[in-house]
Amino acid sequence: MTVESRLAEIVGKNRVSGDPGELDAFSLDHSYVGKKAPALIVRPENPEEVQGIVKLANEMDLSLVPVSSGTPRFRGDSVPSVDGAVIVDLSQMDKIMWINRRNRVALVEPGVTFGDLQAELDKHGLRAMFPLAPKSSKSVIGAYMEREPFTVPRYAWDLGDPVAGAEFVLGDGNTMRTGGAAGPAATLEAQRATGGAQKLPMSPISMDFRRIAQGSSGSFGVCNWISLRCELLPEHEQVFFSEADSPAPLMEAARRFLNLRLADDLYVVNRLTFASLLKVEPDKIEALKEKLPPYILVASVAGFGDLAKDQFNYKAADLKDEAKKLKLPFSSRIGGVTGAAYLSQVVRKCSAEPYWKLRRKGDCRELFFLAPPNKAAGYVEQALALAKKGGFNPDGVGVYLQMAVHGAVCHCGLDYFVSPEKAEALKPLFMETSKALFENGAYFSRPYGPWSGLVYPRYETFVKYANKLKAVFDPKGVMNPGKLCFKEN
Amino acid sequence: MAIPLEAKKALEEALGAENISDDPGVIETYSHMNGLGSAASGYWWARPAAVALPGSTEEVQKVVKICNEFGLRFKAHSTGWICCALATSKNCVLLDMRRMDGLEFVEPEGYVITEPYATAGETQVEAMKLGYTPHLVGAGPNASNLASATSMQGTGGNSVRTSMNERNPLAIEWVLPSGEILRLGSVDTPNAGWFCGDGPGPSLRGMMRGAVGNIGGNGVFTKIALKLYPWYGPPYECEGHPPFFKTKELPLSFVRYVSWDDRDQECDALYRLGETEILDYTNRWSASALMSSLATTNQEYREMKEKGDLHKVFPNGYWTFFFNASSKRQYDYNVKVFEHVINDTGGVIVDPKDLGDPAYEVAVQNAVRSQWIAKSAYMPTGANTGVPPLTYETIDQCLKYALDETIDVKKEWIETNKVYNDGEDNAYACLDENGHFLHVEHACHADYAEPEAEALGIIFKGYGRALEKNLGAAYMSMPAGWSKRKEYSNYMVAIQRMIDPNRTADSMLTNLAELTGA
Asked: pTM for this structure?
């Protein structure tokens, strides 16, 4: 029997595709990972089917590439590295399995998007932690399993947040649950019967597979579902802005506001990113951009739960006082954009179509890394100077600085807005900038695509043990071979 | 067992003769520990073959390689809080990490790089000068923060703000049982520093530990960076002499005891208080625990217990809540919402000062410094052990289900006189991360005059009950839980074999699993 027919036995004929058009959509993305088409796409609808697919892969030496989110894609992690790969498209597994207000928790499958989830959480008075205006097809699991930062750093104790429990089909075909979902009871219902809610992020037995799997581009297994921590939905909420000619004073202010626990959404963007988030047409993006200061701090104030209004009032007053102490302008309006408009369009919202990173030029190349917050501005300036030197207008680079882990780290996102026809020509500058930043201390914690060649030679022992660890969970190397530091098998 | 002469010679050459000892008198001092542990019990703790005092990562590496060469085992021992810090194999070279006590504050990044013998207390003293506090484990300021972050557990009363120590490491330096040095996170990127511990790509922190660490079985953690959290007040200061220090005024700080008659209302209040995000410290204690902190002698403790005054005030246990505000506005809001929630849920608020200055000092020193041990006769019979539940999950699971189960288990041991009758309920609990989860544990006091295994049995009984009643994944960390879900323990064993093919690390968990047939 062929691979296609064996897969069809597991999921049904209509959920296996070898259609060239569909395959082509998975063969390339907006990254510098080379084009490679998969052989097939399989679309499971439940964990049992996922397990069947992984077991078949072990039996027939298949390479599986798990994919949760829809297009557009940017990281190259879902483009196969090897010939004959099978895309495991998890978008059909789109159930919101459980929401519990008392324990502030939701369980979701990989096909659930941020928009789907928040619509349901609204009914329970809860909110999910959103990345900055995710694409409408962005999978919640896809974001969190790749340690994507979210916009409320106060709730990020750990880079793995807000994942609590999870269920995986490991590369060897076995199933494992992590965190509070691990047990001792075998079923979620039995755990809940004694008050459990799959809330614990840490796992039993002196190891944590969830932590290993996060950031691995699906190299260890397939995530069937996660339980994620939610927070209370604000009853009172307002967005404020501050501005500066460079990101440094705004990052200093953001750290201060975070330490005082006054702000919810809290990040720094440049005017191009700000305008791109709010406007769709390129000319309107340009027009708004011209009215804006070079860098903008976005800080939302929220009141929720008991005495929500009192909470909002004290936080707003303290925040204004702190901005005054730092001698920074602080307002609920910037460049003609009100905080209310920003709140309704950006905060806990998915991007309208087209995705905001593609609006201006049709393509975008993402360069991102982690840094201590106090060093983030310096890396931005270094990258923009290199862009200028390399003939790329620095005004065409979007900037997004997002603290996480209670301010221990800052995600530094540089978006090179470029036309599709000029994207390839940008590659030398992109790689030269990446290398210069890396040598200067920028930490590429998710070294996708060509960054792996930059980063991993410095991590010899890490690579050795990461590969040994993969062999424990995926002895035949069926899971997304060739990504990050893992061999192509 | 005696260390082979060739091995001793190699260790002396590596570290200097003054940093190696196999003197029986010295060895004996490494054979007893709080928490029902001593080599004399003959249960599973062992006298080490030798004690080594490495002074650097390179020296740790040398010791580990020598152990590999001579078929010895090794285990790191930092500040040593409970019996898990002892050797569990007779051919073990115990690494006393006291020479590695460095602390480096990285500013303005705002984190600290710590070596194994730096204590949480000294970290906090220095951090407060810079406007920070580290997480403080419940074991007290004398405990190593590195040890709990990498190898043990790491919960404390301020976990509501600073989480528990599985969640606090940034970059990590780790000498594997092979002698190789593995660094996790940003530290191997040139000029990056120690600000991140995950990646690049997958996070190998996941093979370091889970809810509980591998208790020395994974190698030696020689240096880690830890997150720091804001401290709004001036550095903590006190005057006087132990055990009755007097805390100097803490501006914009608030501490109260609260009790409820009704467990459902207590849980409702804890959920709501967590959601307000106002608290910096939470701790549930019984009247018995408060008495053992107030008493200065065992006799005084017994007299207080017989008198029963505190049991009348707190018949169902009580909580200590503390916060330190950054502004008058925040302080006023915090007090208002705190009183609103407590009053709305039938709680009774007690100002600790109304119970006397010592009661206030117990509250505030615990809240700010995790300082409950030095000023108490906590162990009226000379040893204590934790009784399950020793778990984490929701507030409801820990308080509505697990707490009563553990009291029930303990009752049997009290009735048969295997542990001291401290009033049965001596459970302590604390919220983590604004109430997203809760930790509960139960103290019990054992008498050295009793055979230790008798008292120790309560741990196994408690684990068995917890597993039977499905109370918390953390139970499964001990070998008693391994057989419950083999799909976890099999992988842990596989990882252990992968990083330690020669079984050079002295793994308490592996040894215990073999002893108990788990």
From this structure: 0.97
